[in-house]
């Protein structure tokens, strides 16, 4: 059952969850699924540690919120992703990632046109030989079934003009809005604004980049939903579903608690040494329960 990867919305996630786009010093990547963690942790620690058993988060209030699987079975548990210090290995990567998106912009300010150039990773800027100005394109495509993919730049640019096979484009940006970006084929010179292009990218092809192996080509089993262009850092790609598990009273309960515990001492102006003695007595007798008169107002708490 792959329920946990079919939907992006309403999932309890942290920002390194499978399918999330992580901005690294070497460009954006998609975190791939955690399926290999059990064997990789065993390998990296020479069998000293077992994932997920030794990385459980013991927090009954949180794990109590996890839905039990359709087939029943034992209650689900929460686990953390091991960190490098925890497994005593600073050199190896723990989580596998995949470079995404795979189209790049060359932002070399010395281009004679003064514009940027769009091309696919693995090929080169059509104008200059410099690598230092390459950045991953900030737009990606998604659908409401949870799929995420590169925009089909060539297909959208050359719709109805299939004779042109060019895959590099001039990128003229007057504003950061999609209507302020004009893309021109470097060969046939057909031109389109990004907002126009976003309406002609076609149907979603069902890609889940987080399920693909690091060096494997994209898999597109098909989907058919309408594809939508968005920024790769857009919050629509992952939506959190907030669950309240800890309630902190918003009334200041400390003065009440002190009065309840130390009423006699406060009223009779007992000396500080005596109060300390009472405290030690409380501790040694194991009195840790809150007095009956103490009621934090949980109805109006945050
Ligand atoms: Zn260039
Ligand atoms: Zn063309
Ligand atoms: Zn789709």
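-> sequence recovered:
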């Amino acid at each position: 059952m792959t329920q946990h990867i079919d939907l992006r919305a309403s999932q309890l996630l942290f920002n390194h969850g499978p399918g999330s786009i992580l901005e690294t010093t070497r460009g954006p990547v998609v975190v791939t699924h955690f399926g290999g963690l059990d064997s990789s942790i065993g390998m990296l620690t020479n069998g000293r540690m077992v994932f997920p058993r030794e990385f459980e988060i013991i927090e009954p209030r949180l794990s109590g919120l996890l839905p039990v699987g359709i087939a029943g079975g034992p209650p689900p548990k929460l686990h953390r992703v091991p960190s490098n210090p925890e497994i005593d290995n600073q050199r190896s990567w723990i989580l596998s990632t995949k470079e995404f998106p795979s189209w790049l912009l060359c932002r070399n300010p010395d281009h004679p046109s003064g514009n940027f150039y769009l091309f696919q990773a693995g090929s080169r800027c059509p104008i200059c030989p410099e690598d230092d100005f390459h950045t991953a394109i900030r737009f990606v495509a998604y659908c409401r079934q949870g799929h995420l993919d590169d925009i089909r730049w060539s297909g959208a640019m050359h719709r109805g003009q299939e004779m042109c096979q060019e895959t590099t484009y001039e990128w003229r940006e007057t504003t950061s809005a999609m209507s302020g970006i004009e893309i021109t084929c470097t060969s046939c010179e057909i031109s389109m604004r990004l907002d126009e292009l976003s309406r002609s990218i076609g149907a979603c092809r069902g890609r889940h980049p987080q399920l693909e192996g690091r060096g494997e080509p994209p898999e597109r089993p098909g989907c058919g939903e309408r594809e939508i262009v968005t920024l790769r850092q857009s919050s629509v790609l992952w939506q959190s579903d907030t669950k309240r598990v800890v309630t902190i009273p918003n009334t200041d309960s400390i003065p009440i608690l002190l009065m309840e515990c130390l009423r006699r001492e406060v009223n009779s102006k007992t000396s500080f040494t005596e109060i300390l003695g009472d405290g030690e007595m409380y501790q040694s007798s194991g009195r840790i329960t809150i007095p009956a008169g103490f009621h934090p107002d949980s109805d109006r708490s945050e």
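The helical segments are 3-6, 37-44, 60-63, 153-157, 194-197, 254-261, 263-267, 272-284.
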